[in-house]
Every structure is written in C-alpha cells, then in structure tokens.
Amino acid sequence: xxxxxxxxxxxxxxxxxxxxxxxxxxxxxxxxxxxxxxxxxxxxxxxxxxxxxxxxxxxxxxxxxxxxxxxxxxxxxxxxxxxxxxxxxxxxxxxxxxxxxxxxxxxxxxx
Amino acid sequence: xxxxxxxxxxxxxxxxxxxxxxxxxxxxxxxxxxxxxxxxxxxxxxxxxxxxxxxxxxxxxxxxxxxxxxxxxxxxxxxxxxxxxxxxxxxxxxxxxxxxxxxxxxxxxxxxxx
Lengths: 111, 114
Prior knowledge:
The complex is a heterodimer of chains A (about 110) and B (about 110).
Chain A lengths: L3 E4 L2 E5 L4 E7 L5 E7 L5 E7 L5 E4 L2 E5 L5 E6 L8 E8 L7 E2 L3 E6 L1
Parallel strand pairs in A: 2-11
Antiparallel strand pairs in A: 1-3, 3-8, 4-5, 4-9, 6-7, 7-8, 9-10, 9-11
Chain B lengths: L4 E3 L2 E4 L5 E6 L6 E8 L3 E9 L2 E5 L6 E5 L5 E5 L8 E8 L9 E2 L3 E5 L1
Parallel strand pairs in B: 2-11
Antiparallel strand pairs in B: 1-3, 3-8, 4-5, 4-9, 5-6, 7-8, 9-10, 9-11
C-alpha cells in the first residue's frame, strides 16, 4: 500500500510566525487530502489536491501538490492560537485502496 | 458536528473480551471507514464498506471484523482483546466509495483494555 512520510513530527512556533508541514511519498499519488485534528477532537477535512502543481488557498493556509504528484505541503502564515492541533496528510494511489495517513505534524503555538 | 455518530464514547474492558463499536454515517453517505488511532502508530486505516459491501481492507487484524447493515450503519467487532488494542477508534463516512472523496469523522470510541 501507499506510504507517506510527514515532517516534522512536532513544530513549536511563536504566535504570528509561519508554519509548514511536508508530506512525501515514494510513489505517484492520485490525490492528497489534508486534515486537522484539534486536541481531544476528531480529524476534520481541510482540502483535496488532485492536479500536478496545484496550489490552493484557504485564508492563511496554502496547500501545494508537487509537479510529480509525490509530495505536498501545507503552509500557515502568521499562526494564531486557533491553529493549534495536528495536521495530517492522507494519500491515495487511486481506486479502492483506502487512504493512507501520514503520522501528522503537531503544531504547538506559544503566545 | 460532522453528522457521523459513534457509540459508545468510552469502553473499558479486560483482556480476552469482545466488544462492538457502532457507527452511523452522515445522512446520504454510502461509504463507511474504520480507523485506529494510537500514539505510536498514528491513524491506521482498518477497513472500508460501501453500500453494504466490503470495499477496501487495510491493517485490520484477524481478531477484528466489521460489517455494514442495510440501513448503512456499521459495526466493528473486536475480539480476544489485548492490551495493545487500547486506542481511539474512529469511523468516517463519505458519499461514494472511491478514495478521492472527503471523509467526515465521528468523535471516536476510546477503548481501554485493563
């Protein structure tokens, strides 16, 4: 099945600083999804990327899908305390193989 | 509120026992997924059902089984429980069965094995 590596595992930032998490696969992906899980909560779908080189923005969040469709990133500009949580990428090779989640990046924000 | 309902919220039981976790998908969603989340293994995909049929299988142990009923709710059965089965079990649902659909997660069932 698919394997996705996500880095870093933990990221401490000061409020107002930027944050980036990276997701890498050794194989070409059909699509990649990003989820956010607040402490004590459940994963919540953020976005899906499908096209090579795709870039999507949601307010302060920017999502990118690599040209080779093997990597993706999530960048948050000027972090706020509400951004605290774990950000997961979830990859699919296509078809009925389910989603493979990365181990997640825990974002910790110091006020 | 994601619209996905999981019961119970917490389960405490002993090794060797058997438990059933229940999930009701969002209205209109035909596909149900089960995940196990533990500190060391992250979010592990177990199994997917679509409209009553098994669609995809992940890292599900032979001691675990699942089914989806005609009303589309799903149950995950865990038997011969071991200490290592302690984890948070999530159910998610999506409209269709393909992996390019957003998944909507329930609040999870926290299973503690004593």
